[in-house]
Amino acid sequence: MDASNYLYISALLFTIGAVGVVVRRNAIVVFMCIELMLNAANLSFVTFSRINGNLDGQVMAFFTMVVAACEVVVGLAIIVAIYRSRRSASVDDASLLKR
Amino acid sequence: MMQLAIEVGQTATPEAVMFWILGPLAVLAALGMLLVKKAVHSAILMAFVMVVLAVFYIAQDAVFLGIVQVVVYTGAVMMLFLFILMLVGVDSSDSLTETIRGLRPIAITAAVGFGGLMVSLLGRATLGRDAIGLSAANADGNVEGIGYLLFSRFVWPFEVISALLVTAALGAMVLAHQPRSSKKTTQRQQSINRFRGESIATAAGLPAPGVYARHNAVDVPALLPDGTPAPNSVNASLKARGDMLDSNTFDLKKISTQVEEEK
Amino acid sequence: MTISTSLVYLIGLPFAGAAILLLGGRRTDKWGHLLATALSGSSFVVGVYHLIQMVNRPTEMRPISQKLFEWISVGSFNVDAGLLLDQLSICFVLLITGVGTLIHIYSIAYMSEDRDRRRFFAYLNLFIAAMLLLVLGDSYLSLYVGWEGVGLASYLLIGFWNQKPAYATASKKAFVMNRVGDMGLSLAIMIAFATMGTVSFAGVAEQAHHTSEAALTAMGIMLLVAAAGKSAQFPLQAWLGDAMAGPTPVSALIHAATMVTAGVYLITRSNFVFDAAPTAQLLVVIVGAITLIFGALIGTAKDDIKKALAASTMSQIGYMILATGLGPIGYAFAIMHLITHGFFKAGMFLGAGSVMHGMNDEVNMRKYGALRQFMPITFITFGIGYLAILGVPPFAGFYSKDMIIESAFNSGGMQAIFLGSLTLIGAAITAFYMTRVMILTFAGTKRWDEGVEPHESPWLMWFPMAVLAVGSVTSGYLLYHNKALYKWLSPLFEDHGEHEELLKPIVVSALALTMVAIGVSIAVYKYMRENIETVAPVDVSWITKFVRKDLMQDQFNEKFFMRPGQLLTKALVTTEDVVVDGSVRGVARMAIGSGSGLRGLQNGFVRSYAALILVGALTLIAAIWVVVS
Amino acid sequence: MNWLTLLMFLPLVGAAVVSVLPKTNEKAAKQAALITTIAVLLVTIAMTLNFDRENVGLQFVEKYAWIPSFGINFAVGIDAIALVLILMSTILAPIVVLAGWNEAHGGRWSVKTFYILILVLETMMIGVFAATDLFLFYVIFEAMLIPVYFLIGGYGTGERAAAAVKFLIYSLVGGLLMLASIIALFVMSGDQFGHTFDINQLSQLQMSSTTQNLLFLGFFIAFAIKAPVWPFHTWLPDAAGSASPGTSVLLLGVLDKVGTFGMIRYCLTLFPEASKTFTPLILILAVISILYGAFLAIGQKNIKRLIAYTSISHFGFITLGIFAMTSQGHSGAVLYMFNHAFSTAALFLVAGWMISRRGSSTISDFGGLQRVTPVLAWSFFFAGLSSLALPGLSSFVSEFLVLVGTFTRYPVHAIIATFGIVLAALYILIPVQKALHGPTTPGNENLKDLNLREKIAIAPVVAIIVVLGFYPSPLLKIINPATTNIVAQLGFTDPAPSIEDK
Prior knowledge:
The complex is a heterotetramer of chains A (about 100), B (about 260), C (about 625) and D (about 500). Chain A is mostly helical and about 100 residues long. Chain A is about 80% helix and about 0% strand. Chain A has a single domain (about 5-90), classed as Orthogonal Bundle (Helix Hairpins). Chain A is elongated, with a radius of gyration of 16 Å. The mean pLDDT of chain C is about 85. Chain C is mainly alpha-helical and about 625 residues long. In chain C, helix 3 (about 85-110) runs parallel beside helix 15 (about 330-360), helix 8 packs parallel to helix 13 and helix 10 packs antiparallel against helix 15. Chain C folds into 2 domains: about 160-555, no CATH class; about 560-629, no CATH class. Chain D has a domain at about 270-495. In chain D, strand 1 (about 60-65) and strand 2 form a beta hairpin. The model of chain D has no long low-confidence stretch (mean pLDDT about 90). Chains A and C meet through helix 1 of A and helix 24 of C. Chain A: It holds the Pfam family Oxidored_q2. Chain A: Belongs to the complex I subunit 4L family.
C-alpha cells in the first residue's frame, strides 16, 4: 500500500487540530488539539522514516513525544494556576492583554 | 484524486484494509473532538485517535514508537488530561457558540485552504515515490536501531531534551505551587491567640460541627444550647466555598415528625 | 617711525580708541571723549605727515603700499592685508581725519548732556578707523572690510538713540539697504577673481586690458550697485533720509562728508574697470543724473532741516557719480566736488545741529525763523556753506560744480547736451531749496514754540563750523588753481586726451549762475513773506504731495520688496509647517495610526492570535504552493 | 604617543570621576567636568602642535583589532580637516561647561548625570572625527545620539521629550540608510580584496555607477539629515528650540558638523563618480537651504528656533562650498565649519543667558535690553554680527571663500547664494532691534548683566571670532593642503581666470 496515504491523513488531522485550537474555548480541549497536531506531525515523521528507509524520522518522533510531554506538564500546570485564580478554564477569560 | 481512487481499489493488502478502516475512524474521532460539548468526551475521542495512531506506527514498522505512544500518550498524558479535567470540573460543558466575531469563518476558511493546499502539495511531492521500507534499517530490531541512533548521532539532542524534561518538571512545580498567603502560626502563637485573644470563650476550642445521622455533618453547624446554629463550628474553608448547610433543615423537631409520619 | 609702519598708525590710532572706549566701559566715561578726539587728531597729523612726504617725492614714487600680513590664501586666491596710500587715498585720509577731528571736537559739546557720550565717541572712532581702512585697502577685499565696517558704524550711530523705535528702524533700514550694495561689491570681487584671478587694485588694473568687456561690464555694474548702496544713489537711496535719526554730528560726518562719498571713491578707484566698460559707465551717468534730480526734488519739500540737507547730499553725490561716469575727464572733478562738498555740507550740518541745539532739538524749519540775530556765528558759517553749495564765486562750490557741469557738456554727443541741461536744472533746484532753507531758518519772523530760547552755541561747537566755513571758501580755489588737484590725481588715471569743448567755460559759468539766480528768485518770491505756516499746508497740488512723500520711494520699496518679502516669509513659514515638517509629521502620524489600527488585532484573545497564526501558515503554504507550481 | 586614544580616553576618565562624586556635591561635578574638558583641550593643542601640515595623509594613526572575524578595527587617524574639527570640539566643550554652569538645574535627572553625558559626548565627538574604520565611525555616529537624546529630553525646556524623540528617530533613519550602504561596501570588499572596513582600502573599490549612486545616496542622506540640508532639516529647529543652550551649542556646533565632515570624508572619497553625478542636485539643495533657512529665520518668533534656522542657512553655505569642488570652496567650507561653531556658540550661549534671565524665549518678550544689560546686549549683537558674516569677523572669511570658490565654477549658484547676505542682515537685525533696542519693556527692567563667569565663558569665543577674522592664516595653512589634495584627487582643478589677450 502507498505510504503517502498516511501523510494525507496526517495533514487532515493536523488541520483539524489547528481548527480546534481556534474554535474551542476550553483550555483543556485546546491543549488536546495541540496534542493532536503534534501527533499528526509524528505520524508524518514515522511515514517519512518508512519512505526514506532509515530510522531518523522515528527518532525525531520520539523527541517530539518528549517535547510534547514537557509541554503538557507545563501547560496543564498553567491551566491549573489560571483556574485557581479565575475559576475558569476558558481561554477567553484570560485576556488581560486586551486594551 | 483519481489516482488515489484507483490505488484504493487496487490495494487490498492487510495493511490497506486496516488503514481504510481505522483512518476514517480516526478522522471522524478527531472531528468529533471539535464538535462535542463536554471536554471529557473530547478526551475520550482523543484517546481513541492516539490509539489508532499507535496502530499506524506499528503498521509502519515503528514498533517501539507504537508502544511508547500507547504507554506515554494514551497512558500517561491522557491520564494527566483527565486528572486536570476532574480538577477543574468534569461536569462543565462548553457552549459552542462563538463569542469572537468572525473568528469561526476565518478559522474554517483558513483551515480548509490550508488542508487543501497541504494535500495538494503532498500529492505532488510523494506521487510516484516508492517507499524504501524499513526492513533493512530494522534488521537488528527496531528498538536497537533507535537506541543506537539515540546514543550515537542524536546523543546531544537527547541530552538537551532530557534537560528540557527536568526543567519542565520543575517549571510545572513552580507554576502549580501556591505560596502561603499568611505566615504559618506556631503552636506558641496559637495558644497565645487562644488565651489572650479577644474573648476567652473559645479558650477551650471551637465547638465541633454538629453531628447528624442523616448527613455528613462536617458542613453543618453545631447547635448551641438555645437551639441556634454556631457558624464558627464549621471549617472556614467550607464556609468560604459556600458549602455550609443550614442546620434548620436538620432541626430535631422536623426529623421527629418525619419519623412519626413514617411510622 | 618708518614710513611703512606709520600707515598702520593711521588706522590703528582711532581703532585703538574705539577698542579702549568700548571695552573699558563706564570707567572711561570721564576722559573717553578727549582720548577719542586726540586719537582722531593724531591720525590727522600722521596723514599730514604722509602728505608732506608724498609731495616731496617724485610723481611716480608717490604711491606707497605696504603688506601687513597674509590674510586669506587658498589656491590661487591670495589676498594680503595690505595698505595703499596714493594721491587719491591721501585726499580721503585728510578729509576723513580732518573733518572727523573737527566733528569730534564739535561733539564734545553737542553730546555733553548725553549719558552715553563715551559710547558715541567710541563709535565715531570706529567709523574713522573703518573709513580709513576703506580708502587705504590695497585690494577690493580689504576695501570690503572697511566698506562694511563703515556700514556697521553708520548703523550704530544712526541707531545711537535706539530707545526710540523709529530710530532703531531707521538704522536697520540703512544697514539692510547697504547690504544690498555690499552684495554688489562682493559679486564684483567674485567676478574679478573669476575672470582676472586677482582682487587687488594693482592686479585688476593690470589685467583689465586683457579681460573681456562683458566681464568688465558685469563687474562695473556690480560696483555701481555697491556705490549706489553706500552713496544713497538711485535706486538704493531711500535710507539716507531716515539716517538723519542719528545725532547731527553723525549726519555731518558720515551722511554728508565721508561715508556716503565712498561710492564715488569706489568708482574712481575702479577707473580702469569703467574705462574699459562703456555700458557700465553709461549706467553710472544715468544713475548719477537720476539721483541728482531726485534728491533735489525731495529737498524742495522737506520741512525737517536735516532731511532737507540729506536730500541735498543725495543730489550733490549724484553730481559726483555723474562726473565719475564721464570717464577720465570727470574723476578729478568728482573728487574735487567731493572735497569741497565735504567742507560745506559738513559745515551746514553742524550749523543745523547748532540751530537745533539752540532750539531744543526742534528740526522743523517752519518753527524757526529770524534766527539770524540770535545765532550770528551759525548764520554766517551756514551762509557761507549756502553760497558754496549754490556755486557762487568765489566759494568752493563754484569751482567744483562748474567743472562738473562743464564736463557734462563736454562729454561728447547728444548725451552731453542732455546731461549738461540736467546738471543745470539740478543747480537751479538746489538754489531753490537751499534758499528756502536759509529763509525759513534765518530770515522772516519768529515762529518758535513757546519756551524756546535760541542762543548761540559754545565755542567748541562754532569753532569747527568756522574752520569748515573757511574751507568752504578757500578749498575750491586752492584745488582749482593751476589745476592743482587735476594734476595731482592725473597720474592715477589714463587720460584719453583733450575733449572738444562744446561750450566755453565762461559760458557754462554764466549759464549756471543764471540758473542759480532763477532758483533763488523763485524761493525768495515764495518764502520771503511774513505768514509762513508753522504746519505744512495740506491743500497742495498732487505734485507737491508726491514730492513730500519722497517721490514714493518708501512706498515703492514697501510695495515691491518689503510686502512681497514678508509674504514670502509667511508663505515659507507656512510651507515649512505644513509641507516640509508636515510630511515628516505625516510619516510619524502614519506610523502611529497604523499602530493603533493594528492594535485592534491585539484583542487579548489567545484564540484570535491562533487564528492569525493559522492565516499566516496558510499564506506561507500558499506561497510555497505558488513557488512550486 | 597615542594622541587620539588619549584624547578619547580622557573625557571618559572624567566621566568616571564625576560618576563617583556624591550626588549632593553639584559643584564638585561641575568643577571636575570643567577641569577634564580643559585638560582635553590642552592635549588637543599639544597634538595640533605636533601635526605635520605638509603631510596630506592620515596622521597619528592607531589601529587595534576589535572584532577580527569581521575585519573590524579600532582604527583612528586624522587629516587636517579632522584635526580642525577636533580642535573646534575640544575648545567648545569647556566653554559650554562654563557657560551653562546652572543649565542642569531643573532637569529630569541630577546635575551629575548632565556632566557625565557631556563628557561621554565629548569622547564621541573626538572619536567620530578620528575614526578611520567605517564600522567604528558608524558605531560612534549612532552612539552619539544617545547622550544628546538624554541631554535634550532630560535637561531641555518646553516639549523636550517630543523634540528628543524627533531628533533621535530622524537621525536613526539616516543612520540606517548609511548602515545599508556600509554593509554593501563591506560585502563588496569581500568579493574584491577581502572583507575590510578600512576607508582607505574601501576607496579603492570598483563599483558600477548604479551601485555607486545608490550607496552614495545612503551616505549622503544620512549626512544631509545630520548637517542638516533642506529638506531634511525640520528636526533641528525643534531640537535646538527645546534643548538647553549648552546642548544646542554642541548639537549645532559639533554634531551637525559630522554631516558636512562626512560629506567630505566619506561621500567624496568613497564615491567620487557618484559625487560628481549628484553635484548639480546637491548644489541646488544647498542654495535652497541658504535662502530657505534665512527666510524662515526672519519669520521666527522664538529666538532659539531663529538661531537654528540661521544655522540651516549656514550649513547651506558649507554644503555649497564642499560640492563646488574648488580649493577655495573646500577650504572655505572647512573653515566655515570651524567658524560657524563659534558664531553659533556665541549666539546660543548669549541667547540662553537672555532666556534664563527673562524666563521666555519669545523675541517680543524682550525689549530695550541695551539700556539694562549693556554687556549682554553687546555680546548678543556681536554674535549676531558674526552670524551675518561681517567682514573682519571670522565667518566672513569662510563665507567669502565659499562664495568665491563657487563663483569660479558655478556663477549662477553663487549669485543666488549671495542674496543670503542681505537676508542675513535681516534675520539678525530684526531680533536685535526687537530685543535690544527700543524702550525697555515691562518685565525687562531688572534683568542682571553678565556676571564674571559668563564673561569668562564668552571672552574666548569673541577672541577667536575676531582673531580669525583678521588672521585666519594659521588655520588655513593647516586646512589648505588637505582640501587641495581632496579636490585634486577628485580630478578637479580650479578654473583658471578667463583672461584673454586683446
